[in-house]
Amino acid sequence: MAKLRKSKDWVADAQFELINEKIEELTAWLDNKIKERNDTPATSDPILTKALIKAKMSSIKVLIKTVSSLERPKANNTEEANDTKPDLNTDL
Q1: Would residue 89 be called left, alpha or beta, if left means φ above 0 and alpha means ψ between -120 and 50 degrees?
Q2: For residue 8, what are the contacts with CB-CB under 8 A and spacing of at least 6?
Q3: What is the mean pLDDT of residues 37-49?
Q4: Which residues have C-beta within 8 Å of that of residue 46, sequence separation ≥ 6?
Q5: What is the mean pLDDT of residues 8-22?
Q6: C-beta separation of 33 from 56 below 8 A
Q7: How many CA atoms lie within 13 A of 60 on its CB side?
Q8: How many distinct structural domains can be found in the chain?
Q9: pTM for the full model?
Q10: What percent of the chain has pLDDT over 90?
Q11: Which of 8, 48, 71, 74 could form a disulfide with 33 if both were Cys (CB 3.0 to 4.6 A apart)?
Q12: Closest CA relative to residue 61, chosen from 6, 19, 4
């Protein structure tokens, strides 16, 4: 995340904070599921599956992909463009 934040310095901090919150939520959820799994007998149905983890991670992946695909906004050069245009209203 630090590398993405550094390379996309024009992206609002709120978007990175949202991604970090989602990652923290996923980490807490995963820790709880691991504790649950350790407390259940080995003969019971699995509590934590690959599909379940992938489903939880998909929203984070979408957020990261959205932020990483944002392009730098173009500078507003209307003032510069007006200065460089020749004045066509002058008498020759």
Answers
A1: alpha
A2: 67, 68, 70
A3: 90
A4: 37
A5: 82
A6: no
A7: 16
A8: 1
A9: 0.68
A10: 36
A11: 48
A12: 19
